[in-house]
Specification:
heterodimer, A: mainly alpha, MetI-like fold, 11 helices, 0% strand, B: alpha/beta, Rossmann fold, six-stranded mixed β-sheet, four-stranded antiparallel β-sheet, transmembrane (chain A), membrane (chain A), BP-dependent_transpt_permease (chain A), OppC_N (chain A), cell membrane (chain A)
């Protein structure tokens, strides 16, 4: 799958940007030239040799704050995606197999979660559980999980009624066997697409929440937090919001690009792209 | 003892508008090694009959015994155990849909054996490949990379791999072009001659007539005629059977009838 993504130019761009952001998340705090929490004498300075991206209203180095804040943003996004993945995919697949009561309950739960505005709900839950990135991200993950629920349920439904699954059942396969050998492979590509999409949503959410000051206590730097601080002093440094905005946008864009690339290479059309270029026929996807 | 004994089988589906009767008091039996054709038009309940025998559709009333076991009362777990023995297998109409597009031929063929937990899987697969005359090189291919006839032979091979005593064939040649149809029919004849009981379901009298010992005609969920093939073809009793025989293309009818001394 990964090798196939790299055959697409968009896939290479997406993987490149995401690798760069991941590198920032791992090495960012060590690369930061200054202490991101320590204020200096120069306040609201423009870019210079000493401070490449200038300093903020407390004289803190903006580059250091962005580098140091990348870890929180990336980890938050990963947490949102993983929570949504687990909370959505497992009931999504099981809703097809565990009978009508379970199906009804999970479907109504998913409807309920979709109906709630997740950012507002996340704010409310952090008020209840305490202000922290894990609490906020866990809540957002649960709120986004209906996306995974619906995607995996739809993919499972289309496979569960297929003749090759019936053929396996006729040979005495159990539900577990069917899910492992037939369902899982078919559900994986749409889930990968949804995962890349959610990672993008996760970035926006972490940035939005930290912009609002939720999830992170003020001195700790985050991309959204830096953006919020910059907006307060727009008249002094009008160009300043561009850098954190660009980071957030580039990451979200790369996640969406990756989602597109995964969709393009998955399934039989994708296999043909890699294996059969110009050779043999590509059958239409059935069932 | 019969291998398959169906007595007074009723199947109906519940619809909002009321019950939809698909099968009404169907009785049918198959001895070991016997080949029975079930003929009927679309909607006559042919596929439902096969699916009920396999336990994919629940019988509303009646009794189905496979090799002496009454399957109507089986719990899901007991069904799985029965199926794992591989006594009964099923060949679908459309091999492109009945083979997982993401599994290679090898994996598709191995699946029933792996479910059984059998040993010596590769040897059994090579043996079955020779039997359906497929090349070993095809083992690594996906169904989409095979021709229609090859695909259906893979589907037949998958059904044979557990050495079943009864194979249900649901329109096994209807999705194939005429060259492939002949190949698969030849294969089924060999299978019959090797002593496997076949229940051959089709809307096409032509493809069943040459292979079945007996023909049962299914009309609107009821078996209206169940007699030796030659009798059904030469002296149909039920008006529907007569209509079916008339609807077989003329050239083939002339072909088949002349040797038996009946003027076309």
């Amino acid at each position: 799958m990964f090798r196939r993504i790299l055959t697409l130019p968009t896939g290479r761009i997406a993987v490149g940007i995401i690798a760069f952001i991941a590198l920032l998340a791992v090495a960012g705090p060590f690369l930061a030239p200054y202490d991101p929490l320590e204020g200096g004498a120069e306040i609201l300075a423009g870019p210079s040799g000493a401070h490449w991206l200038g300093t903020d209203y407390l004289g803190r180095d903006v580059l250091s704050r962005l580098l140091d804040g990348s870890r929180v943003s990336v980890l938050g996004s990963i947490q949102v995606s993983l929570v949504a993945l687990v909370a959505g995919v497992i009931p999504g697949i099981l809703s097809v197999y565990l009978g009508s009561v379970f199906e009804w309950v999970t479907l109504r739960l998913a409807d309920t979660l979709i109906a709630l505005p997740f950012l507002v709900f996340a704010v409310a839950v952090t008020a209840l559980l305490g202000n922290g990135i894990p609490q906020a991200m866990f809540t957002v993950g649960i709120m986004i999980s209906p996306l995974f629920f619906r995607v995996s349920r739809a993919a499972t439904l289309s496979v569960a009624r297929s003749q090759y699954v019936e053929a396996a059942l006729i040979s005495g396969a159990s539900v577990g066997w069917v899910v492992r050998k037939h369902v899982w492979v078919k559900v994986l590509p749409p889930i990968a697409v949804a995962l890349a999409n959610t990672a993008g949503i996760g970035f926006v959410v972490v940035s939005s929440l930290t912009f609002l000051g939720i999830g992170v206590q003020p001195p700790a730097p985050t991309w959204g937090g830096v953006l919020a601080a910059d907006l307060g002093y727009l008249s002094f440094r009008p160009w300043a919001p561009l850098v954190p905005t660009f980071l957030i946008m580039a990451t979200v864009w790369a996640c969406n690009l990756l989602a597109d690339a995964i969709r393009d290479v998955s399934g039989e059309a994708g296999r043909a792209l890699l294996l059969n270029r110009g050779r043999g026929h590509v059958p239409a996807r059935t069932a | 003892m019969s291998l398959l004994e169906i007595t007074d089988l009723d199947v109906h589906y519940r619809r909002r508008t009321g019950r939809l009767h698909v099968l009404r008091s169907v009785s049918l039996s198959l001895s070991p090694g016997e080949t029975v054709g079930v003929i009927g038009e679309t909607g006559s309940g042919k596929s439902t009959l096969a699916r009920t025998i396999l336990g994919l559709v629940k019988a509303s009333a009646g009794r189905i015994a496979i090799d002496g076991t009454d399957v109507a009362s089986l719990k899901p777990r007991q069904w799985r155990e029965l199926r794992r023995r591989g006594v009964v297998q099923y060949v679908f109409q459309d091999p492109l849909r009945s083979l997982d597009p993401d599994l290679t031929v090898l994996d598709s063929l191995a699946e029933p054996l792996r479910i059984q937990g059998a040993a010596g899987i590769r040897d059994k697969i090579l043996k079955i490949l020779a039997r359906v005359r497929l090349d070993e090189a095809l083992l690594d291919r996906l169904p989409g990379e095979l021709s229609g006839g090859q695909r259906q032979r893979v589907a037949v091979a998958r059904a044979l791999i557990t050495e079943p005593r009864l194979v249900l064939l649901d329109e096994p040649v209807s999705a194939l072009d005429s060259a492939n149809r002949v190949q698969v029919l030849e294969l089924l004849k060999e299978l019959r001659d090797a002593g496997t009981a076949l229940l051959f379901i089709s809307h096409d009298l032509g493809s069943v007539a040459g292979i079945a010992d007996r023909i049962a005609v299914l009309y609107e969920g009821e078996i209206v005629e169940d007699r030796p093939s030659a009798d059904v073809i030469n002296a149909p009793v039920h008006p529907y059977t007569r209509k079916l025989i008339r609807s077989v293309p003329t050239l083939r009818r002339a072909d088949r009838r002349t040797p038996e001394g009946i003027p076309a």
